[in-house]
Amino acid sequence: MTSSDSRIEWAVARLPALRSRNFRRYMAGQVASIAGTWLQSVALGWLVLKLTHDGSAVGLVTAAQFAPALILGVWAGAVADRFDARRAVMGLQVLLGAQAASLAVLVFTDHASLWSLCLLAMVQGVGNAFDQPLRQALMNETVGDRELPNAIATNSMLVQIGLILGPSLAAVLIPTVGIGWCFAVNAASYAVMLVAIRSIRPDEMVRRPRSKGADASVRAGLVYLRQRRDIRLLLVVLAAGSMLAYRLEVVLPVLASRDLHGGSALFAVMTASRGLGALGVSLYLASRIGPPPFQFMRRMGLVMAAGLGLMAVPFTPVVLVALVPVGLGMLGSVGSTLALTQLLASPEFRGRVVAVWFVVMNGGVVFGALFTGALVEHLGTRETVLIGAGTMLVLWAILGRSARVLEMRTDHLTAASATGNVSPSAREGDLE
Length: 432
Hints:
The chain has a single domain (about 15-200, about 230-420), classed as Up-down Bundle (Growth Hormone, Chain: A). It has about 425 residues and is an all-alpha fold. The longest helix is centred in the first third of the chain and has 32 residues, at about 20-50. Helices cover about 80% and strands about 0% of the residues. The relative contact order is 0.15. The termini are far apart. It is found in: Cell membrane. Pfam families: MFS_3. It is a multi-pass membrane protein.
C-alpha cells in the first residue's frame, strides 16, 4: 500500500462522505468555487471603498448582492425540490462566471462605478438565489442518508478552506497585479466547478423524493414550516445574528483602512483569520457522525460574542487574534443551523426549507449591511462590533428559556444519526 493510499483511507475513515466518488468530485469543484467567491468578495469590498471612501457604500453594494435572494429565494427552493439540480447548477455556473468576467472587464477598462458595481452585484444575487439551494440539493444526492450529516459538515469544512484560500490569494493579487485579476480568477473558478459537476455520474446519484404539482408549490412549503416550531426557532437565531452580528464584510475593510491604517493586504489577512477560526470548528463538525447538539450552538454564540468584544481593541495583532474566535463562533452557530435545518426537514420539503433558510440569512445580510454601514459611518467600527457582541449575548439569553423543544429535538436527531436511523419520527412531530 502506497503512502497516498494510506492518506486516502485515513481521510475516508474520518470523513465517511468521501467514500462517494460523486461527492469527492462535487467537493473538488466546490473548494475552487468558494475560494474564487471569497477572492471576489474581498476585491469587491476594497474596490468600493477605494472608489467612494464610504462605509455606507460598501453596505449598499452588499445589500444589492443579497436582495435578489430575499425576493426569489423561496421560489428557488421550489425549483430545487422539483427539477434536476445537476443540470440547473451547471447552467448557473455559466451565468455567475459571466458576471465575474464582467467585473474584470470594468476594472481593466477603468469603467467601474458605484452604480455598475451595484448592478452586477444584483446579477450575482439572482444567480446565487437559485445556486445556493440547488447546490445543497445536488450535494444531498451524492451521498446516502447515513453519510448526509457528515457530507454537510465536510462541505462546511471545505467552504472554510475556501474562505482562507480566497482572501490569502487576494492579499497577493491586489497589491501585485491589481483588483481586476481577482475577478478574472473567480470567473475561472466557475469553469472548474462546471467541469466538476459534469463529471458527476447520474447513475450513481442517490435520488431523493421530489414533489410534484401542488406539493411543489411555495405555499405548501410555507404551510410545512408553520407546523415545524423547531425549524422556526433555528430561523429566529439565524435572522437576529445575520442582521446584527455577522456583517463583517462591511466592518472589516473600514476597520483595516481607517482604524488600523492598513491596506488591502491587511483586509485580506483579517478575512483569512476569520476563516482560520471557522476551519477549526468545521473540522470538529466534520468529525462527528451526526449533527451537533443544541448546546453547542449556544456555546459558539458566546464564543463569537467574546471575539467581537476583543475586536474593539484598536491594535492590529489583537484584532487578528480576535477574528479567530469570531470565525469559530460564527460558523459554529450559523453552520449548525443550516445542518440541523436540512436534517430536520422531510426530504420532499428540504429544498424549500433550505431556500427559506437562505432567504432569512440573505434578508439579514440586506438589512444588516445597510444598518451596519450606517453604524460604521456614524458611530465607528469599535461601537459597531460591540453592538454585535451585545446582540449575541441578548439573543441567547432570550432563547435560553424558549428553546427547550428545539434542544430535545436536535439531541434526539443527533442520537438517531449516530445509528444511521434518521426516521421520519426523528425529524417531525407535534411541535406546537
